[in-house]
Amino acid sequence: MPRIVTYNVHRCVGNDRKLDVARIADVLARLEPDIVALQELDVGRARTGGVDQAHEIADQLNMVSHFHAALKVEEELYGDAILTALPERLIQVGPLPGHPLTTALEPRGALWIEADVGEQRLQVINTHLGLVPREQQMQAEVLAGPSWLGHARCVGPKILLGDFNATGTSIVYRTLSARLEPARRLSPKRSPTATFPSQLPVLRIDHLFVSPEIRVVDVFAPYDLLTRVASDHLPLVMDFEVGPPRP
């Protein structure tokens, strides 16, 4: 059964303020995922030792990685990645709009791969939205529109996931729920799914949205000694199957 994980890794700096890329890789290795969507990765940044965190984590998991730099400061990069050991191909990366009155805020983006799950081609889009509600709404509208979920190539089974910085009562959540179904609603199990803050998770701001071809088996946020300290978010995990569309 395939397993996908979304995880904001906080540039691999844990709640103990230690920079530890291997610890993040260990969290993921214990989960044995097939596809991993990561947010807040540093690549070649002085503040984290110049390491390519996306490549380093992928290498430890025996996966390939695709990285999108939402922020570039000369040669230093910061952004999101998708990792997998499945046959895959990169479809698209790109920025998401910022609010014109909040240009000083951190840039945001998304990346999209296609992965082969058995005989099915699965579309996977990873994103990390902004912190300001109006900015988030603009970004969600773009993701729901013709450039991403409405793209001519974005057909069949699909999963949109990441850190949306928005709860289930937000306009962002409603905008994306109009295109795809929130995985939490479809899970037959009542597993804990709050992911932030990791030491005492009370907020559900990391999400998975799925198309009708995805049958959700479980969605859960593993909470243990390792995940509580490795990042300020818990990973969010979904076990699923791909089949005929739900009615």
Topology:
Blueprint: E1 3-8, H1 21-31, E2 35-43, H2 53-60, E3 64-73, E4 76-84, E5 88-96, E6 108-117, E7 120-128, H3 133-144, E8 158-163, H4 171-177, E9 181-182, H5 183-186, E10 206-210, E11 214-220, H6 225-230, E12 236-242
Regions with pLDDT < 50 over 5+ consecutive residues?
none
CATH topology: Deoxyribonuclease I, Chain A
Question: Main sheet, how many strands, which sense, barrel?
Answer: 6 strands, mixed
Shape: globular
Secondary-structure-based class equals alpha+beta
Record keyword descriptors for this entry.
247 residues, alpha+beta, Deoxyribonuclease I, Chain A, six-stranded mixed β-sheet, 12 strands, globular
Provide structural commentary.
The chain is α+β, with helices and mostly antiparallel strands. It has a single domain (3-241), classed as 4-Layer Sandwich (Deoxyribonuclease I, Chain A), CATH 3.60.10. Helix content is 19%, strand content 36%. The protein contains six helices and twelve strands. The chain has helices at 21-31, 53-60, 133-144, 171-177, 183-186, 225-230, and strands spanning 3-8, 35-43, 64-73, 76-84, 88-96, 108-117, 120-128, 158-163, 181-182, 206-210, 214-220, 236-242. It has a six-stranded mixed beta sheet with strand order 3-4-2-1-12-11. A six-stranded mixed beta sheet has the order 5-6-7-8-10-9. Helix 3 links the parallel strand 7 and strand 8. The protein is globular, with a radius of gyration of 17 Å.
Give a short summary of the structure.
The protein is α+β, with helices and mostly antiparallel strands and 247 residues long. Helix content is 19%, strand content 36%. It has 6 helices and 12 strands.
